[in-house]
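Progress against Task 2.4 (sequence-to-structure conversion) is shown through the following example record, which the project officer requested during the mid-term review.
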Amino acid sequence: MPPVAPMLAKSVAKIPADMSYEPKWDGFRSIIFRDGDDVEIGSRNERPMTRYFPEVVEAVRSEFPARSVIDGEIVIARGAGLDFEALLQRIHPATSRVNLLAKETPASFVAFDILALGDDDLTGRPFEERRQLLESLKGLEGDHDAVIAVGPLAGSVAAASWSLAEARRALEVRQIRRRNASARRQYPARGLVVVDAEDAAVESLSLTCLDASAREAFVNRQLRAVLEHDAQRQSQLLETLQVWLDSGCNTAQSARELHLERQSMHHRLQRIFELCGGDPRGTGRLAALHLAARMAGLP
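Structure tokens generated for the chain above:
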């Protein structure tokens, strides 16, 4: 358990080449310690911050390995960026105020490195090995309100700013997806969320390389009949198509995700195929439909 001093940046005349690079997150540098139900959050100055982030503590208890030490940064994501002013408000002497802000502006933990696991001190192991262990946190789910994210890893100095921009866009895309989701597939209001920029790569490319009018024109060329059908009948065919394409055209998996009977899922797909000019599987239209489905709903 703490204290453990974090590895801090040092001023150098030139950025070293052939290294691994992380974005500069606008938050509180923290090392989180878990030993069973005991959780401590240490600051960059090795001072305790545990009481200020109860939602992060609950997330760690639920999802981190039972005995582990993880280095990272606590941030608050709002809109398409990070809100450092909201983070500063969390350093408050009143527990009631801290608990209120934990619900109104829940914090996220961006993980950089895993320093210990079980009885093993990992600091002497290669960074690539530690990073692989850290990546294993990505598929986790919980019943708390914090977000735990793995920071994007840049392979060069030139890619560092791009990596940060991709992470911010991934947060923006997640908000768009939540806003557009139907009640049947509504994103949970509570719970652990792991945001991975790779999952929003198509949307990010569309937002950065195409203007809104070009995106709208492409989506309409591919999906106009589906969009009109949804507008007239509230049929949610676009969402059905999105889920089906994202699953690799796996009908059974899509039915489970949408909480539909398999027969209902088949009926929806048949209607979609009729509106789109036939079953796209095995044709060149499949990729175009998938791209349009991912772009639909972007601002």
